Amino acid sequence: MRAVTVLQTGPLCTVQDRGRAGYASIGVGRSGAADRLSHDAANRLVGNHSDSATLEVTFGGLALRAEFDAVLAVTGAHVTCRIDGTEQGLYSTLVMRAGQRLQLSTPTSGLRSYVAVRGGIDVPAVLGSRSTDTMSGLGPAAVSPGTVLKVGKDRTDWPAADFGIPTTTRTALHVTFGPRDNWFTEHARSLLLEQPWTVTQDSDRVGIRLDGAEPLHRTRDDELASEGMVLGALQVPPSGKPVLFLADHPVTGGYPVIAVVTAADVSAAAQLTPGAQIRFRAAG
Questions:
Q1: In terms of Cα–Cα distance, which of 101, 114, 143 is closest to 52?
Q2: Does the pLDDT value for residue 170 go beyond 80?
Q3: Which of 58, 125, 161, 182 is deepest in the core (most CB within 10 A)?
Q4: Are residues 10 and 143 in the same domain?
Q5: Cα angle at 189 between 188 and 192, to 5 degrees?
Q6: How far, in Å, CA of 80 to CA of 46, rounded?
């Protein structure tokens, strides 16, 4: 049987691919891997298509058993990866024989790990994607101990080695101001870049809540009509403490967005752990 059996999951383990694009008009977000760069790297290491489904492991703790001779890779957060107790390298192509066990420790840095198996995790697709959307409930349920995951045949040529390893320790994220930065004081716009922001415990795949010494004040207090939200948006509720939207963000929102984290830095944002401090830098 071409499958892997999940023995332990840690705090959260979900199936993710590159998401279900094109359905925002009917209220369905894209979802997909929170750290797309690490997801893509894992697939490339085992010769899968970039949209093949992987396991996204939040804060380590995954243990699984191969039910066949499998080729896999582990990327993302800095975890200790072992196969039958023998430590393995991250960002490398690994072989598991039938019956062997893979275990991931809690990370020493970063938050999310990605496990790709050659052929891709084969769960039923919903609206063209195998991703679990934790906000809408679309896609497969979060993986639980005892789950047997079939492995498909969604593979391509073996990979080249000419790709960079994404960093999981970035402390500065680049932003583009707008579309509603004119709803904020000049001091607030400067403050977004000048003061450090701390990732709070109240953060998940939907978004990262940030706390700073001084909140961001508006120039106006009227209500904003709901408008479309994008990945990386920094939405500011009345508290003045921004929320950075990640993969499972809502498609619309009623609070003003002061800036948007650049696409290149969203993957790094997805690796931020509670308590981490970051700064924002103006792009360009």
A1: 114
A2: no
A3: 58
A4: yes
A5: 85
A6: 19
